[in-house]
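Predict the 3D structure for this chain.
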Amino acid sequence: MNQRPDIHDRLAASLKAARRSKGLSLDAVAKLSGVSRSMVSQIERGESSPTVATLWNLTQALHVDFAGLLEGRATPGVEVMRAGAVPLIEGRGVGVRIRILSPAEAAGAHEVYDLSFAEGGALVSDPHGPGCREHLTVLEGALCVTSGEDQECIGPGDTARYAADRPHAIRAEGGGARALLVVQNS
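Done. Predicted structure below.
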């Protein structure tokens, strides 16, 4: 007699279907979720029971409905990411808070960030992939953008579009600032 509840089978099938529907590899899901590739594989095969924290990380990375995962419900028509749940990137700049606004499946293609700069804050980046461009719109304050040898300073409502496949930087000018950044990889 099989003592294993069929919840493992439903969970395994749902997660595997969600990953495949997004066209993501096991490695991509591992990177997006912070769950090891081997653990993702074991869960998808029904060989491991994930903790609630692991399951939460996987559902967030795959953008599937946590509550409906075992019931086979689709993600709601309006997906909401509450402010307190928006992922942050730490340690990428000095005096900069980076909130990730784009969905996990857009990583590497079309990314959206909310940037908050303290006075003197700077986000200095190495070149991204060939053809990558960034679009920076200032919401508050002033920012100076450098792309290679080119530099422009912009204020509220202004948008700078520039090559990000070379060294580039965004620096707060004259106080704190806030901006939206869209990264488009080709």
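The two ends are 53 Å apart (CA to CA).
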